[in-house]
Task: structure prediction
Amino acid sequence: MNLIAIEAAVKELITAIGDDPDRPGLKDTPARVAKMFTEIFAGVGVSPEEDFKLYRIDNQDEMILIKDIPFYSICEHHLLPFWGTVSIAYIPNNNLITGFSNLIRVVDNFARRLQVQERMATEIADFLVDKLKPMGVIVIIEAQQMCIAMQGERKEASKTISSAMRGVLRKTPTRMEALSLLSKNI
Result:
């Protein structure tokens, strides 16, 4: 990440909107934004497979779920935040599983880049299919979009939901089981 270029761009943006980047409240803003970008865009150019580990365990074909993984991302259309939770369910194949912390890191990786919610669900599902080779996977993202809350329609309380389903989780009985388990307050 080019911090000097980010600082220059932020300074230029402040000038372009008609404010003074050298006034006391804004003087250090370009550097703060550049530093913040290293954290919120840490997934850019980084593959989630770098830390992704697989394990073999006698699981047969029992569903594995993790729900309500919190995330924060930046909408690539408006450069405004969106945030919410990701829930994942998968059915292992050949007793191949991954740890729950690996699933959390996958979510973080795909969220920490310029993103759209719909693609994020697809990218997570496709990554898990590629690496785990499960019988099926479902990814559900529920989020709030600042681009909906702050401009245009200005509906602050709106939530958006997107999902991606692969394999046997596209079949109604299996999908319904996953959705039922993911919706329970256990």
Q: What stands out?
A: The mean pLDDT is 93. The beta strands are 55-56, 64-75, 81-91, 96-97, 114-115, 136-145, 160-167.
